[in-house]
């Protein structure tokens, strides 16, 4: 049964004050949002501004290795363009385009740019000096282009960038003395590229910022010498670019016009700063600006490669920003006129509006304000939408960089008549959050908001003892964001604590969550004690992170009776001993009622689909080769029931592909309304579900429900279990240092040669078939020489079946050798009981704590429904309205 949710999102909202009583305020705490202030953003769907471009979610070094990030993460975020290093380049230990191109292009990528100068190992390139013998660089250029031509499966989709930030520390910063040199070098490089690959596409200039004089000189020369770039590029990095970019682009277009140069596509190949990454409310401002101007753009690479530039969580998870990128990737049709409270004003409410008349959907993405928001929507065409529409508003809440965010809840719903201006009030109160409003013709059942009870408080607004409040200026480009502009740190004394009171509506189980920064490289994983009414009730475990400002999430379950309770996060459980790794920065706490297994329902009319939509049925009308794709979120690795609700006019197949693996046994044997369910193993994070029906099915929804009773189908083996694991060569068991989240020993020194491996005896009863191998691992490997990027290294584990095939799993850096994460590798086994060999002949494998081998599917059922209704909105056991 789906339970209602009360939408109490922050303690500063008046409704939340009744539920969350703050017992003390920290000195210097951020002032609450003014509930009386309302920011208004107008959207006129009758005023198109051009086709949706969708190219502003590109990224620099967003992918690092084959498998990092995972395919579902890439497909959901849907980046259309990337910049990676030169093939076989030495600038970073990963990010080779030849390693990531398949995953990029197979998941919707359109073109891949390569920085040729990233062939060099040093930053600035070649010590910051132009080679005295420039022919040596021309040789590098030819080598790079030849590698793409010879080794890539898609050379026609590459764009070559010969110079990166030439106006900075890379060879040509003094334009007065280096202009003529640069222009001749450009000509030589351009011709060298074309010499190797006549059809090559070339990008320039790639300056650190907008440079009008250099641009005019360059374009005039390039036109006169027939060496014009195919794309024009520069960087817009600081907060000020939100104010001045439109002016810069207008100046660029004027220079083109003045010189008679045909308009070049523009790609802003680096944008935004550390303060923006992972933050939906900041990123939506950049996306709106670039989409409005119809340019492509790529987020900058400040931290490390392979995590969409901080816009995903851990190995396979979504953070709040990932959901915004997913929504942006969902846009289709035409963008429309949007009027924010102020244009070109950083850190204010901004948005994107789009309408797809074929799909009969109108969408607004918006955010960036601490005040309440009102959408003033007009221009909906009754010929498209009918006389009545349903409106659903979802919230992508900031969750930190490594803090996983589950599917965004519906926070506002409205059914209204079409005509005039429709006002939609949205209870926004945190500038770090973003929202999606979707408008469709009326559905069979009116949508409802997620009504799970929850409450939130900023850490700095609790009663503080022996800790420090640190300001995190929201406008500071190089500062990782913090909710409310502050966090609480120096949590390193036995007497340190953060305490507050809360009123809970019912007796039951609650999930306590903390957004926190863990300095994994210096400390490792950590823990705090959660006290309720003066008694320890639970331990909050935190996995290792990048540093104190780079935030993840710790969670624990706690039983509470109805009424008021004092909650206290403490650094000691017994009052005398400091908990291991307790020195953790704390940003925000939340408490959420749990009622039954976690359940999320995804409406088919909001899926990514090429099938017709029937809003009267609330369904995607699948037939032939049409499909509908859903991106489902799992809080933890384990078994889930994936239930598809649909109707047919006769017997029909139902094809389901889970992360591109086929699930069989689903379908209807007669006309009617059906629910077909597969119990499947899902990895923590995002899974891609694709439905099809060659014979025809009107799919209404996909509902994903946690099935903990199914977890017994997986077999867990500890690394130190010598009855199951045999060690060879240098492979050996070790005891990690403290603090650690390993209870015993881990398996290390795997790989680095063919002789160093472990053999896992195949558990009984697990014969040939599709499996997931979940590995609890540690990998803190990295290079240490770059000026500002953390050059993390992915380690690979080769899983070879005796008598079968080898599967390679990619394990990204997780910050600490003492802290372990879980990552799941899909494997297909073909023998009845062949042992599994774990190693890596070409490099080092990760350290391993334990492994779980789980069948991908354990059962399927197909059941007719007695009553035919449509699931018009998404819902979950902890609430409703997820998508």
Automatic annotation (TrEMBL):
Gene Ontology molecular function, alphabetical: carbohydrate binding
Q: What SUPFAM superfamilies does this protein's entry cite? A: (Trans)glycosidases (SSF51445), Galactose-binding domain-like (SSF49785)
Gene3D superfamilies named in the record: Galactose-binding domain-like, Glycosidases
The CBM6 domain extends over: 455-592, 715-854
Q: Which InterPro entries match?
A: CBM6 (IPR005084), Galactose-bd-like_sf (IPR008979), GH (IPR017853)
Residue numbers spanned by region Disordered: 73-95, 864-883
Where does the UniProt annotation place the signal sequence? 1-35
Q: Name the UniProt key words of this record, in alphabetical order.
A: Signal
Instruction: Provide the protein name.
Output: CBM6 domain-containing protein
């Amino acid at each position: 049964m789906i339970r209602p949710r009360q939408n109490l999102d922050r303690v500063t909202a008046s409704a939340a004050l009744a539920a969350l009583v703050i017992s003390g305020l920290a000195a210097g705490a951020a002032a609450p949002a003014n509930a009386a202030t309302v920011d208004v953003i107008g959207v006129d769907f009758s005023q198109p501004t051009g086709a949706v471009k969708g190219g502003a979610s590109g990224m620099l070094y967003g992918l690092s290795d084959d498998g990092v990030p995972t395919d579902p993460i890439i497909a959901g975020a849907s980046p259309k363009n990337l910049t990676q290093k030169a093939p076989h380049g030495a600038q970073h230990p990963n990010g080779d385009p030849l390693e990531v191109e398949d995953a990029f292009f197979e998941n919707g990528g359109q073109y891949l740019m390569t920085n040729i100068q990233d062939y060099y190992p040093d930053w600035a390139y070649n010590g910051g000096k132009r080679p005295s013998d420039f022919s040596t660089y021309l040789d590098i250029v030819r080598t790079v282009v030849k590698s793409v031509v010879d080794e890539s499966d898609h050379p026609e989709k590459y764009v070559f960038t010969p110079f990166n930030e030439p106006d900075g520390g890379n060879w040509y910063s003094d334009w007065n003395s280096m202009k003529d040199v640069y222009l001749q070098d450009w000509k030589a490089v351009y011709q060298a590229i074309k010499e190797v690959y006549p059809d090559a596409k070339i990008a320039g200039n790639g300056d650190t910022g907008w440079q009008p004089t250099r641009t005019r000189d360059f374009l005039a020369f390039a036109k006169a010498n027939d060496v014009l770039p195919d794309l024009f590029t520069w960087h817009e990095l600081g907060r000020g670019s939100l104010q001045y970019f439109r002016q810069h682009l207008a100046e660029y277009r004027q220079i083109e016009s003045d010189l008679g140069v045909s308009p070049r596509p523009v790609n802003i190949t680096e944008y935004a700063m550390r303060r923006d990454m992972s933050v939906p409310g900041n990123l939506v401002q950049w996306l709106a600006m670039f989409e409005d101007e119809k340019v492509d753009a790529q987020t900058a690479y400040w931290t490390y490669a392979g995590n969409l530039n901080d816009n995903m969580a851990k190995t396979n998870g979504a953070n709040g920003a990932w959901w915004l990128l997913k929504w942006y990737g969902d846009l289709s049709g035409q963008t429309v006129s949007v009027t924010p409270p102020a244009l070109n004003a950083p850190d204010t409410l901004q948005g994107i509006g789009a309408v797809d008349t074929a799909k009969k959907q109108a969408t607004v993405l918006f955010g960036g304000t601490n005040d309440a928001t009102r959408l003033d929507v007009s221009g909906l065409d009754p010929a498209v939408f009918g006389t009545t529409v349903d409106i659903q508003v979802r919230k992508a809440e900031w969750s930190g960089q490594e803090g996983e965010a589950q599917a965004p809840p519906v926070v506002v719903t409205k059914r209204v008549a079409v005509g005039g201006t429709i006002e939609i009030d949205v209870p926004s109160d945190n500038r770090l959050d973003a929202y999606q409003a979707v408008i469709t013709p009326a559905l069979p059942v009116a949508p409802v908001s997620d009504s799970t009870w929850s409450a939130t408080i900023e850490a700095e607004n609790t009663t503080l003892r022996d800790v420090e409040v640190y300001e995190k200026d929201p406008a500071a480009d190089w500062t990782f964001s913090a909710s409310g502009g502050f966090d609480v740190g120096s949590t390193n004394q036995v007497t340190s604590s953060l305490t507050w009171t809360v009123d809970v509506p019912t007796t039951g189980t609650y999930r306590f969550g903390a957004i926190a920064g863990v300095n994994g490289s210096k400390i490792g994983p950590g823990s705090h004690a959660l006290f309720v009414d003066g008694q320890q009730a639970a331990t909050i475990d935190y996995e290792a992170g990048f540093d104190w400002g780079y935030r993840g999430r710790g969670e624990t379950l706690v039983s509470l009776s109805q009424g008021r309770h004092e909650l206290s996060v403490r650094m000691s459980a017994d009052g005398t001993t400091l908990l291991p790794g307790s020195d953790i920065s704390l940003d925000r706490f939340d408490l959420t009622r749990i009622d039954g297994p976690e359940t999320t329902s995804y409406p088919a009319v909001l899926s990514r689909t090429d099938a017709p939509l029937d809003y009267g049925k609330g369904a995607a009308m699948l037939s032939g080769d049409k499909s509908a794709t859903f991106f489902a979120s799992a809080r933890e690795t384990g078994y889930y029931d994936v239930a598809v609700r649909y109707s047919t006019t006769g017997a029909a197949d139902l094809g389901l592909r889970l992360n591109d693996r086929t699930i069989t046994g689903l379908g209807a044997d007669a006309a009617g309304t059906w629910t077909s369910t597969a119990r499947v193993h899902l990895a923590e994070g995002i899974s891609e579900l694709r439905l099809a029906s060659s014979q025809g099915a009107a799919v209404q929804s996909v509902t994903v429900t946690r099935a903990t009773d199914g977890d017994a189908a997986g077999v867990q083996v500890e690394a130190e279990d010598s009855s199951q694991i045999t060690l060879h060569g240098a492979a050996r068991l070790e005891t990690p240092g403290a603090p650690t989240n390993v209870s015993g020993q881990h398996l290390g020194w795997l790989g680095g040669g063919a002789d160093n491996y472990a053999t896992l005896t195949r558990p009984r009863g697990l014969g040939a078939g599709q499996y997931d191998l979940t590995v609890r691992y540690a990998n803190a490997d990295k290079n240490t020489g770059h000026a500002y990027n953390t050059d993390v290294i992915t380690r690979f584990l080769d899983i070879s079946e005796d008598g079968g095939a080898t599967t390679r799993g990619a394990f990204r850096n997780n910050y600490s050798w003492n802290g372990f994460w879980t990552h799941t590798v899909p494997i297909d086994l073909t023998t009845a009981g062949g042992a599994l060999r774990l190693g890596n002949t070409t490099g080092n494998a990760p350290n391993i704590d334990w492994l779980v081998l789980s069948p991908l599917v354990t059962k399927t059922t197909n059941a007719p429904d007695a009553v035919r209704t449509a699931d018009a909105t998404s819902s979950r056991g902890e609430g409703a309205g997820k998508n």
